[in-house]
Specification:
By secondary structure, the protein is of the alpha/beta class. It starts with a helix and ends with a helix. The structure holds ligand KE4.
Length: 423
């Protein structure tokens, strides 16, 4: 049993000053019990808590650290940028270079605007879609998470395709009613909503591969059919690639599946672990964004030079790496778990993101994911933690590999997972 006394001390201090002791809810270990680790440092595939315990890290700050922690060249780039100053509130050369990198990797984007988080990216993308189409209603999919802007904290009302109801206090019903929620992977539900209401629907927003109900991949042709239907009815298609962008491959899910969305949202990896987000589209659509057009969006620290330097260096390194080596390790890990053939356990994985579900599967949407045994997941999570492996502290999250995860890490993880789930 690992000693985690100092984390407990910090948590008690934090609880007095920070709601739930954390600056983002999922970090509070509410779904798995106990108290969160307070992290001292990260290096390569590992993080180290304040009690000196080491963990193979499969959270990687919820995705951004695809190169692993504290990659030498990335830290050097941040230090070099910091020497010149933290922020100017004026354009800098790095922002142009990052815009060139992003639009080259995502040809559906001819122009891109940097913001400070994935939430800002999706919130701005929806405002742009509404401004461009002059329609107010949007469609999201059950189980997809796009950040915490009001109109997206919405769940399906009674009946599959009625107007949404808020999932959070403080969201006026008047906001939620503009959001329709349909089941992920249900193209018939999507088609009937759009056919019936396309005159009011500005956009559909989707995680093209979902990570926020645990990993759930689109059924064959789901995304292609989604693109066909939205194009047919004049509804914009927004790909939220905050998690999948530069994760599944250098060009994200849209490159992997060959889909051309109208607007793309990015985050996480493009900042290499520092605060950043972005949204982009064809020039004609981005012409609607202030100061060019009437859709207002702004940010004091948008394009922050340190975040840009960190993200740019990350992508410059990433561009030269072979994703097959990364993805093969993820496949090996998940295949090793599946080959154990344990009833009530299944894995979903794609690229270098995976979820072990306490669920017979197949987990193809939120209703299926919700049937998972979250108590078993909590026990599994804590057993992994006590054996030096840090996975997502919730059944309904994705886990990630980095280029720093070695064959030995995978072998150790598989051995530990086997010991835990077969006992
Ligand atoms: P941020 O505002 O947290 O940078 O991004 C919001 C967001 C948007 N779109 C997708 C697909 C996302 O996964 C996220 C954020 N992901 C969660 C983890 N599932 C962040 C972790 C957290 O909330 O602390």
């Amino acid at each position: 049993m690992k000693k985690r006394k100092k984390s407990g001390d910090y948590f008690r201090r934090a609880l007095r000053l920070i709601p739930g002791g954390v600056n983002s809810p999922v970090r509070a270990f509410g779904a798995v019990g106990g108290y969160p680790l307070f992290i001292e440092k990260g290096k390569g595939s590992r993080i180290y808590d304040v009690d000196g315990n080491a963990y193979i890290d499969y959270v990687l700050s919820w995705g951004p650290l695809i190169l692993g922690h504290s990659r030498r060249e990335v830290i050097a780039a941040i230090k070099q940028a910091a020497e010149k100053g933290a922020s100017f509130g004026a354009p800098t050369p790095g922002e142009v270079m990052l815009a060139e990198m992003l639009t080259a990797a995502f040809p559906s984007m001819e122009q891109v605007r940097l913001v400070n988080s994935g939430t800002e990216a999706t919130m701005s993308a929806l405002r742009l879609a509404r401004g461009y189409t002059k329609k107010d209603t949007i469609i999201k999919f059950e189980g997809c998470y796009h950040g915490h802007s009001d109109g997206l904290l919405v769940k399906a009302g009674s009946g599959a395709a009625t107007f949404g109801v808020p999932t959070s206090a403080g969201v006026p019903g008047d906001y939620a009613k503009h959001t329709i929620v349909v089941p992920y992977n249900d193209i018939d539900a999507l088609r009937s909503v759009i056919a019936g209401r396309h005159k009011q629907i500005a956009a559909v927003i989707i995680e093209p591969v979902c990570g926020n109900m645990g990993v759930v991949v689109p059924k064959p042709d789901f995304l292609a059919e989604l693109r066909r239907i939205t194009r047919k009815y004049g509804v914009m298609l927004i790909f939220d690639e905050v998690m999948t962008g530069f994760r599944l491959c250098f060009g994200g899910a849209q490159t992997l599946y060959g889909i051309d969305p109208d607007i793309t949202c990015l985050g996480k990896i493009i900042g290499g672990g520092m605060p950043i987000g972005a949204y982009g589209a064809k020039k004609e659509i981005m012409a609607g964004v202030a100061p060019l057009g009437p859709v207002y969006q702004a940010g004091t620290l948008s394009g922050n030079p340190l975040a840009v330097a960190c993200g740019l260096k990350t992508l410059q390194i990433l561009r030269k790496l072979d994703y097959n080596t990364l993805n093969e390790r993820c496949r090996r890990l998940c295949r090793g778990i599946d080959d154990l053939g344990i009833p009530g356990i299944s894995t979903n994985s794609i690229g270098s993101m995976f979820t072990l579900f306490f669920n017979d599967g197949p987990v193809v949407n939120y209703a299926a994911a919700a049937r998972s045994d979250v108590k078993k997941y909590a026990r599994y999570f804590n057993a992994l933690l006590n054996n030096g492996i840090y996975c997502a502290p919730s059944q309904f999250e994705a886990n990630f590999l980095s280029f720093a995860h070695s064959d030995a890490d995978i072998a150790e993880t598989l051995k530990t997972v086997k010991k835990i789930i077969t006992r």
